[in-house]
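ok trying again, last paste got cut off:
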Amino acid sequence: MSKNRRLSEVISYFFVLGCVAFGGPAAHVAMMHRELVERKQWLTEQQFVDLWAATNLIPGPNSTEMAIHISSLRSGWRGLIGGGIAFILPAALMVTVLAWAYTEFGHLPQVSWILYGVKPVVIAIVVHALIGLLGTAWRSIPLAVLGLVAGGLALVGVNELLVLFGGGVLAAVVVNGLKKLRGEIGKSSLLALPLAAIGGFSPMAKPFLAIPATLLAPIAAPFGLGQLFLTFLKIGAVLYGSGYVLLAFLHGDFVEGLGWLREDQLLDAVAVGQLTPGPLFTTASFVGYLIGYENLGSVQGALLASGLATVGIFLPSFLFVAAVNPLIPRIRNSQVFSSALDGVVSAAMGLMGAVAVFLGQAAYVDIPTVAAGGIALVLLWRTKINSIWLVLGGAAFGVAVQLALPYVLP
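nice, full thing came through this time. structure:
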């Protein structure tokens, strides 16, 4: 088969998948396995498992990186770029259209009531995801303690990056010992970048974070497209764990740090991310549009900001996948990095819990919203319902409450 034919197949498959891939990263990867391993036989079971392991060892959105990995394996560097963009593009376009509609109609009563019903459901989805991941993330008492401490630190305002990477370094040091950590880090530049630079164990890693380190603690500043792009680039370059951890970063950077986004806007962005298929990271497209529209005052400026936000948050994934492919065997056999990853994931669960607390304060404002969140959580716990139906149900609930108000109020 010609290279152009393979490239065309990669782009067409991942574009279609991006249009229908509801349910989050696990569902996306399950769809890829069924179609590309079982039916199309683009790669073997072992290759698929190896690629999935690699996506969990690098920052970024797992299902997007899986799509990029497979596309690269199938069609080289052109596939890496084309397949990745094809998977991201549908959701990014949908989210941007919804962002435009939100800025035009978002303050109308009927839309406000839709979001009133959706927000508590979104928090329930986050809580359910957190509960489901704890068994894997906190599979030992030290990891559970680490996660609880991380959540507490996040609640009192400690920078989420320091919490996340600090957890990884601490776990690696405790499990493997500082001396062994130094030795193995020296063998792998990939290990030296995310771990040694933070902990100061390897001089070779210091130049890597010389510039990004200035972005670790966002400083309130006037709006700038460059700052917007660099902030999303930083998030894409360092975010480990579930896509829901993205909420913690967006909250820390744009709500608390820069002050460019309000709590309610962040919840609305999350709700839109749940309503659309594809990567949850396209929430960045919505956030970028809102920030651009409010600061630049035009649809053109908002589209530019949305595009920069989208490119910024996804660009590191393409670079990481390109760098990691030849190193996959070494990564899988590294006890040090596996231990560090345990610590990162444990801390990420703590961050998820902290952001659920912050956002829950804005979502659960009365008895109906508490009831909606409780019902959603029960359905998530007792059934296999797709979260998209819950979000749509939340929207219908919000409209129903609006319609019922004239009959229940004096």
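cool. The CA atoms of residues 161 and 216 lie 7 Å apart. The first helix runs from residue 3 to 20.
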